[in-house]
Sequence to fold (271 residues):
Amino acid sequence: MKTTRLVVIGDLHAGPDRSSLKGTFVETLLGEWIDFVNESIEPDVIVDLGDRLNPVDRESDIRVLEEISGILARSKCPVYYIPGNHDLDNLNQEEHEKALGGELGNRSVVLKELRLLLLNTQDPVVHGVGGMISDEALGWLEREIEASSEKIVIFTHQALDDQPLEKNIHFERIENLAYVGNRRELQQIFENGGNVIATINGHVHWPSVSLGNDILYVSVPSFTDTWQQLRSVPGAFTLIDFCGEKMIVENYMFKPYILMGRFRTNLKKEG
Fold:
């Protein structure tokens, strides 16, 4: 049985260095990384989960996005984007899309036996929560899930599970900003549909896997975050293989190339 292979990155934070986020390394590191992915991993798709920017101003942000777009355009497979909470500080969605050369809105993509649903959690922007899915988008999502004959994988910037955040230097004291605010509604839609097998998010900067009601909730690590501990910028990414009823999640550092962790699960539901 053929494998469907996804590579997921997030939280590049390109631009100036800020604390543990080494944005000045993105251009060189991302260029080396995409060549490696093309030659050694050969995914069916790459998904960028947002927070591409350490924002500065409109002109600087556009220039950085154009650099990122130019590098990822070398990919041998399609690249899909969703926005993060830092991506629209100085740009509106249309400006970001133009500079990036890719759509940011809610999107449905069929990939072999999977349907990928990419969600914009920045429309509307609601203060006091990490992200939000609009009522209109919830309706669209529910219709997509009901109509789909494929297994579904959901992509958001913020987390959709209730993972603990102790010792997370970014969110331990502001946990309310780590999650999608109306995630309970989304979880109910997923469970009602019965065909959502996984959700994948960035934002929290560290890898995490949890299982709830037969749905796998995956958080991917930040591409550039050193966590004030690493000696080099990691180029971290997540590789996810779907093969029949099997799903394998692997988190890697690119520099140096290290497998940080692996999780395997059987997607076949009992009963």
